[in-house]
Design a protein that fits this description.
The protein is of the alpha+beta class. A hairpin with a 2-residue loop joins strand 23 and strand 24. The N terminus is likely disordered.
Length: about 425
């Protein structure tokens, strides 16, 4: 991994320009009149999860705190045992459940429900995505350098699996991006990510990530959905996830569904379910990866070890007949092998830090300038709630204005068409 420009997982010194941000933003949930002194404006350091730390001692304290709440569940996935945090969340969940009454176990779209900031982390969903895809410098660079289509395909599969373990850091909900919100960041190897929220309902985020020297471009859009089912939440990300290479090849993949159980009672476990696919249309390569498959096939009662991932890479000929070219086996919390050869180990990956560095912030719509996330990060829940409510009210008003303008345009177009016919 030494040829990849990722730094050891201790402290990454980051220097931001000491630029004045006064009188830049007004209203809309961004700073009015001045920007409070954010850590981004000074020299700072980051741990593996992208959280600001002040010293090695601070790094160790925060890391130990994160690990304390987690344990491996016997049923697989990541189990949280932080009783204090669970109690805080469940108090809100029970208030929500009382409002639902007999409809508690029906599916409820959580993207359309306003929750108090006590359930949130101090990041926007765009910032979470930037952190989630952090391992592209490691594995998509190797994919771009591969000399055979099958080898390239394998490294893309590794990339898709490599970030799944970050589910263990997602105990709290990120803030929903506002329409038009952007985020720009860079990674240790110099690659850049550009994101924008293009739709509020349904929530759709667009992005374009450029590898070093444009050796690859990772682009697409995703629609996030989350549904509440009484004691469980299911979350899905739907949309094209495409990786483009200089030789004209592109590989597309899907994201597995997330199941969070123990929302209101019992053990809080976060896990992946079902299947997900990776496809190379140009070279007729595809794989369907199954999470937690059964030994001996779908009718077998014998289960694989928790967190298992399995699948076969297939290649179709001109007549559409498929041949297996490689077998995939492993665990998203362990290691991944192709035909018995290990390509990825989580413990080795943890030694490297590929956390994103915020860009220069030249766009005033950048996620970092939101006041609700800022105040939550400062521990001021009341101010965070105040600004969150203001932003939600602004979005509702803007949506009504857009709807009214669209209706007026349609009436004008109808009258113009009637005159032309007459």
């Amino acid at each position: 991994m030494s040829d990849i420009h990722c730094l050891p997982n201790q402290l990454i010194q980051l220097t931001a320009t000491n630029k004045s941000h006064r009188a830049l933003l007004k209203g809309r949930g961004y700073l009015e009149g001045y920007l409070p002194p954010l850590p981004l404006i000074t020299t700072l350091a980051m741990d593996e999860e992208g959280e600001t730390v002040d010293s090695l001692e601070d790094f160790e304290t925060k890391w130990n705190k994160k690990q304390k709440g987690k344990s491996t569940s016997e049923v697989g996935g990541v189990q949280w045992d932080d009783e204090a945090a669970l109690k805080q969340q469940r108090a809100v969940v029970w208030q929500f459940a009382k409002k639902l009454g007999k409809n508690l176990f029906a599916a409820h779209d959580l993207t359309k429900i306003a929750f108090p900031v006590v359930l949130f982390e101090s990041d926007s969903y765009l910032q979470r995505v930037a952190s989630q895809i952090r391992y592209h410098p490691l594995y998509l660079t190797k994919a771009a350098e591969a000399t055979s289509p099958v080898e390239r395909f394998k490294w893309v599969v590794v990339y898709v699996v490599a970030g799944l373990h970050l589910l263990e850091t997602q105990f709290r909900k990120p803030f929903n991006p506002i329409l038009g919100e952007t985020y720009h960041c860079t990674y240790p190897d110099g690659s850049e990510l550009f994101m924008e929220q293009s739709s509020h309902h349904p929530p759709i985020s667009c992005w374009e990530c450029h590898g070093l020297d444009d050796s690859y471009v990772y682009a697409g859009w995703s629609e996030f959905s989350a549904k509440f089912h009484g004691n469980n939440i299911t979350a899905d990300v739907v949309g094209p996830q495409n990786i483009y290479f200089k030789d004209g090849t592109y590989i597309t993949f899907s994201i597995p569904s997330v199941l969070v159980s123990g929302i209101a009672w019992g053990s809080r476990v976060m896990n992946y379910t079902g299947t997900f696919t990776v496809t190379d249309p140009k070279n007729n390569l595809s794989v369907k990866l199954t999470l937690n498959p059964k030994e001996g096939g779908m009718f077998s009662r014998k289960k694989c070890p928790p967190n298992t991932i399995r699948g076969d890479i297939m290649q179709a000929d001109a007549k559409g007949k498929e041949t297996r070219v490689s077998s995939v086996d492993g665990s998203w919390l362990g290691e991944l092998s192709f035909d018995g050869e290990v390509y990825w180990r989580l413990e080795e990956q943890r030694k490297l830090s590929c956390a994103p560095t915020p860009g220069p912030g030249e766009l005033l719509s950048d996620s970092r300038y939101r006041l609700d996330t800022y105040y939550l990060g400062q521990g001021d829940n009341d101010k965070a709630e105040e600004w969150k409510s203001k932003m939600e009210e602004d979005q509702r008003r803007d949506r009504k204005l857009r709807a009214g303008q669209k209706a007026a345009y349609e009436r004008m177009a109808a009258r113009a068409k009637a005159r032309s016919i007459g």
